[in-house]
Design brief:
Layout (H helix, E strand, L loop, with lengths): L5 E5 H14 L5 H12 L6 E5 L9 H4 L16 H11 L2 E2 L6 H10 L4 E3 L10 E4 L8 E3 L1 H14 L14 H10 L5 H10 L15 H10 L7 E2 L4 E2 L8
Parallel strand pairs: 1-2, 1-4, 2-3, 4-5
Antiparallel strand pairs: 5-6, 7-8
Helix pairs in contact: 1-2, 1-4, 6-7, 6-9
């Protein structure tokens, strides 16, 4: 896949980072701080960039799958200048949003289609094939293959994501997930994971009000970052993940 000239930046992270900075330093310098952050986030190879922002959480399609999605953040502190920063970015840069989607999903769609480099420090994007750039860890963009992305998705589906309030399978962390995936044939990964969600030993216990198979499907749909195959940009139709047998 040819490296795109366009960088698609995760604006949500820049919004929060700048808002916290403004609160501790100088709210009158929000514009300068945002400019510095974006400059540091755009890889040298890119000739242009857009900033992606999320829809409201209440509008996120994942809320219909798992009503507790990100509910663990309800009582988190909100920096005072959050909306000021968001408004400044909206007024000053080219913004890319899509209905009912998070910024991560927009990045995923652009990266998987080969139209943009996904720029973020969020590890979850590595579940999407295409070009990626983590400005905190990388000097240049890196290409994630289909196989790498698929394995990341399956591993995340097993583990869940405590940051987003997604419980995943009981008592399965990264080491156990990797070990299981190594033991299974790749073509059996999804069937094996579905079986774990059905089992008494590993089925989710925390905040679980869904029964199998709904709980397994909800977890997969919540952890999966959308790609070009999951979203129709002409109709805004989201093609949700489903088990192979239905």
């Amino acid at each position: 896949m040819k490296k795109p000239d366009l960088a698609v930046i995760d604006g949500d992270i820049i919004v929060y980072k700048t808002a916290y900075w403004a609160e501790a330093n100088d709210p009158l310098a929000i514009d300068k701080k945002v400019k510095r952050e974006i400059k540091a986030w755009v890889p040298e190879e890119a000739t242009d960039f857009v900033v992606s922002l999320s829809c409201k959480r209440s509008e996120n399609f994942r809320m219909k799958e798992w009503t507790k999605y990100k509910s663990n953040r309800d009582n988190m502190y909100t920096p005072e200048f959050l909306e000021d920063v968001r408004d400044y970015i909206k007024d000053s840069y080219e913004i890319k949003t899509l209905p009912n989607l998070e910024a991560d999903d927009v990045l995923g769609i652009y990266a998987s289609s080969g139209e943009g480099i996904a720029v973020t420090i969020d590890k979850d994007l590595r579940g999407v094939p295409g070009w990626h750039f983590n400005p905190n860890k990388e000097k240049e963009p890196t290409l994630i293959s289909d196989d790498e992305a698929y394995r990341f998705f399956c591993k995340q589906w097993m583990m869940g994501d405590s940051t987003d309030g997604i419980p995943g399978l009981w008592k399965i962390g990264p080491k156990k997930a990797d070990k299981m995936l190594d033991e299974w044939a790749k073509e059996d990964w999804e069937d094996e994971i579905m079986s774990l969600y059905k089992s008494d030993k590993h089925k989710p216990r925390k905040n679980n009000d869904l029964e199998y198979p709904e709980i397994a499907i909800a977890m997969a749909r919540c952890v999966q970052i959308l790609t070009k195959d999951n979203y129709d940009r002409e109709t805004d139709e989201i093609k949700l993940w489903s088990p192979k047998d239905g």
